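Q: Predict the bound structure with nicotinamide-adenine-dinucleotide.
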Amino acid sequence: MEKVKFGVIGMGNMGSLHAENLLKMKEVELKIVSDPRVDEVMDLTSTLGIPKIAANWGEVVEDPEIDAIVVTAPTVLHYEIISSAINSGKKWIFTEKPVTHDLRSAKKLLELVEKNNIKLQVGFNRRFDHNYKKIHDIIEGGKIGEVHIIRDVTRDPEIHGVDFLKGSGGLFYDIFIHEFDIVRYIISQEVERVYAVGSVKWEPRIKELGDYDTAVVVLEISGGAIAVIEGTMKSVYGYDQRLEAFGSKGSILILNDRETTTVLSDGNGLLLDKPFQDVPPYRPLRHTKHRYEESYFEELYEFVRCIVENKTPLPTAEDGYKANLVAECAKISSKENKPILVGNFEGI
Ligand SMILES: NC(=O)c1ccc[n+]([C@@H]2O[C@H](COP(=O)([O-])OP(=O)(O)OC[C@H]3O[C@@H](n4cnc5c(N)ncnc54)[C@H](O)[C@@H]3O)[C@@H](O)[C@H]2O)c1
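A: Predicted complex:
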């Protein structure tokens, strides 16, 4: 079988992680990567054995030999890169979340994807995480009955630099987007109304961006369930992501995965291992295990399997758009101090 030829655009934290994962797959040939920081990335590409690096992403999307691209450039560039790739005839696109940094561009992209029959997968990796998958399956199997309440906690270990935040779409598009998708995924229903409250507790410069580093979002779900999501860009004890679904027949809870389950007891109290952390900065080769390590591999391998078997990969561009829709409503709600009906913004 001929290998699927890949190009990766943006060789920062996520790009290098996805490149490493692609290199583990026997079905894949990683032919080219692109990043304007050519000199800095060169070390990495030569360590990994990637044959070509281009300063300009146009070289990747216009290369007729490339079958599939992975978009891991800053979010603010996603729309331009993906739409150019589609216009250059690329059919298989994996993009990091969020699909784009706002609602209008997400809608335009969805139309482009549907019109050209593009197979686009959005990097909502939590759907491939063993814990979140199990909650989904438990709920789908009816084991906790009708879901009434979802409580979701997302706490990042550290705030990204302000430059990253400027191109990220903001707290709701960048961080809460995973939660908006995971709520839709585990309950298999749509969000109808959104109420968000935001605050700046960690980094004053975030206020100047008109954004928040701390927020609570309440989602009213189509079947009548309520989801409460609380999130922050920083937590002194590291990455903390938990979720509980409560239903008519019981509840199910996800705790943080840890290195070991040991409990050290001494005269001061009980000591547990810290939760696994977020993706560590690239150090050839990454050797610190991180929370969603397997899910990042699994989501991309699913994409590759879909290419090989010519199937439609999930989550789709529509899932990406729907998460953006909720993010936009959260943004508006937090500014206007009122709940926002999602239906009022659909189609925009
Ligand atoms: N799924 C997840 O859990 C997850 C986690 C973190 C980030 N992300 C997403 O991944 C994307 C990248 O985030 P990151 O953390 O890797 O950021 P990063 O800043 O580490 O990497 C971005 C890279 O893109 C490069 N770049 C900038 N302009 C470019 C251009 N014109 N062409 C090609 N490359 C360009 C930068 O030089 C940098 O190397 C974002 O969309 C972000 O939202 C997803």
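A: The radius of gyration is 20 Å.
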